[in-house]
């Protein structure tokens, strides 16, 4: 598999040799790292992208989840191109930011008012700060394995084994303000919140890493009750789930209303951007007031609500308000999950494909007790650490390379679907998986 991968991609290989001289390990985002070199893309449209060696790939990274309408959606592309000519930064308010903000408030149930940032990482940083300012408490609780970007308060306990020392470069004093709750452990949360020093609890409402470790039924409802009881703010990090799990995100799908919500990816329609929104009284901390004793929470940021992100975001949100967008992506993802599981069962290969909404995760070399040849939401009997880590490195590498050889680009050993993925894409992807798994078996990888 690896030999074929190398032979098929001379152009990417040559580019990587240049890239490693410019960037540590040659990549500009950790998740794009692939041995012996990643592929380099030239253009993208709809569900597809084309690499520099001329191969067409069905794409499941979809802008790391930002592109629920597919690559370069004609309406968004047109609106952005038009805006470039009118100006990319006014250093002033503009109509587009108002429209964008109103659309967020209208779509997301908990969002009474909103602020735009340049990324999801900045959005979680701001949400945590607002929670601390609102409650007068210093500590934030997060869950093992949940991803909230790369800022200092977000990364403790993100990677297995979840309870190690603070990640390199994070001061101990900062790490001490972050309490990591064990995977899906509500009893821990309840006991720890009773101490009364936790400002906010942040989580991905899908479960860790967009449903890699799914949440049990009723988890969000109970968490909502417990946080309310202890006057701790509940923060949903909807950077992935926002506008994907439903037009109003996971909070709409599960009917649980957080105090604050962080957004990015889809909210900015494929351009850089993020947002934090929520309760009126919490967002009020960002207001200017004449009262001389008032100390507001600051919010600068050169590219906040820049006209390009605003026009892409507003145009995108107008389209994703139609639930047929999410329904189509969900259906295509369910077909992938069922199709991959059918392949694994038929070939007698250990592994499973699972997920919810329009995402899927592939686990190889490990079995779950509720394996099916159909769709699977929650694999049972598998250690959450194993789920979060994904397949053994040699299996995930071979799967990723093998699928690229077959014309499919996975993301993180899984992927995110869009409204642009067709039945034909799905059928081709399942065939590609079938051939890749057969090839891996031939190479004695299982
Ligand atoms: N939160 C979640 C749930 C995410 O998935 C991500 C990005 N994958 C982030 C926060 C960080 O967003 P960004 O990459 O825009 O900083």
Description:
By secondary structure, the chain is of the alpha/beta class. The protein has two domains: 2-71 and 324-442, Aspartate Aminotransferase, domain 1; 74-320, 3-Layer(aba) Sandwich (Aspartate Aminotransferase, domain 2). The chain has helices spanning 2-8, 10-22, 74-86, 95-107, 120-135, 172-175, 186-193, 208-211, 219-229, 250-254, 280-283, 307-320, 324-347, 384-389, 393-405, 423-442, and strands at 41-45, 48-51, 56-59, 113-117, 139-143, 178-181, 198-203, 233-237, 260-264, 274-278, 351-354, 359-364, 408-409, 414-416. Strand 2 and strand 3 (56-59) form a beta hairpin. The longest helix has 24 residues, at 324-347. 50% of the residues are buried. The chain binds 4'-deoxy-4'-aminopyridoxal-5'-phosphate. 4'-deoxy-4'-aminopyridoxal-5'-phosphate binds at residues 64, 119-121, 124, 147-149, 204, 237, 239-240, 264, 274. The site of 4'-deoxy-4'-aminopyridoxal-5'-phosphate (PMP) has 14 residues, from helix 5. Keywords: Aminotransferase, Isomerase, Porphyrin biosynthesis, Pyridoxal phosphate, Transferase. Its cofactor is pyridoxal 5'-phosphate. This is Glutamate-1-semialdehyde 2,1-aminomutase. Pathway: Porphyrin-containing compound metabolism; protoporphyrin-IX biosynthesis; 5-aminolevulinate from L-glutamyl-tRNA(Glu): step 2/2.
